[in-house]
Structure formats: structure tokens, C-alpha cells
Amino acid sequence: MEVVGKTLRFTLGLAIGAGIGSVAAMLLAPQSGQVSKQQIKARIDAALGAGKEAKRKRERELQEYWEQEINAKPEKEKKDKK
After folding, report:
1. 16 and 55 share a domain?
2. In angstroms, rounded to a whole number, what is the distance separating the alpha carbons of residues 2 and 53?
3. 26 and 37 inside one domain
4. Residues 12-58 pLDDT 10s
């Protein structure tokens, strides 16, 4: 339970720190609010796109691994029967 509590406190602190940092960056940014919003949106879109691409890549890897395992089982069963 102690580890879960420490992890939760760390995550909460990280989220609060990120929020405070975001607000400070918005207030101290040298460009207008509209430009800042566009930049943030572009970065979020890029991050989401990269995440989706990583997800698709991992799904393909897992699918290939699963297919190899399924194809390997009949060969193992044939060897075991001999």
C-alpha cells in the first residue's frame, strides 16, 4: 500500500506541476494568446499522431507474433507425437 500511495502522490504532484508550468508559460509567452493556443494545439496533435502511429506499429508487431505462435504450435505438436 505504501508504494501505491507514493506513486499516487508523485503522479498528483507531477500533474499539478505541469498545470502550474502551463499557466506560467501562457502568461509569460512573448507572443499573443491566439498564437500560443495554435502552437499548443499543433504540439498536442503531433503528440497524439505519434502515439496513434506507435499504437498501430505495436498492434502489427503483436499480430505478427501471435500468427507466428499459432503457426508454430502445430509443428510442436507434431514433434511431440513422434
Report:
1. no
2. 36
3. no
4. 999 999 999 988 887 787 888 788 789 889 999 999 999 999 999 99
C-alpha–C-alpha distance, residues 26 and 28, integer Å? 6
For the chain, the residue count is: 82
CA distances from 11 to 18, 20, 33 (A): 10, 14, 28
Res 26: pLDDT: 77
Q: Which residues contact 26 (CB under 8 A, 6 or more apart)?
A: 33, 36
Burial class (CB in 10 A: 0-12, 13-18, 19+), 9: exposed
Give the domain extent around 41.
32-82
Q: Which of 59, 81, 63 is nearest to 71 (CA)?
A: 63
CA distances from 74 to 8, 31, 79 (A): 46, 64, 9
Question: Which grid coordinates belong to 44?
Answer: 498536442
Q: How many domains does the chain have?
A: 2
